[in-house]
Amino acid sequence: MPSIVRRYGILVIIIVVVAAVAFVFRDRITGSAADLAVGDCFDVPTVQIEIKDVQHHPCAEAHTGEVFAVVTDPAAAGAPVPTTDEISSFYGPACLPLLTTYIGEDALTQKTLDFGAFYPNDDGWNKGDRGITCYLYRVDSGTMTVTMKGAKP
Question: Using alpha carbons only, what angle is made at residue 146 by residues 25 and 47, rounded to the nearest 5 degrees?
Answer without folding.
Answer: 70
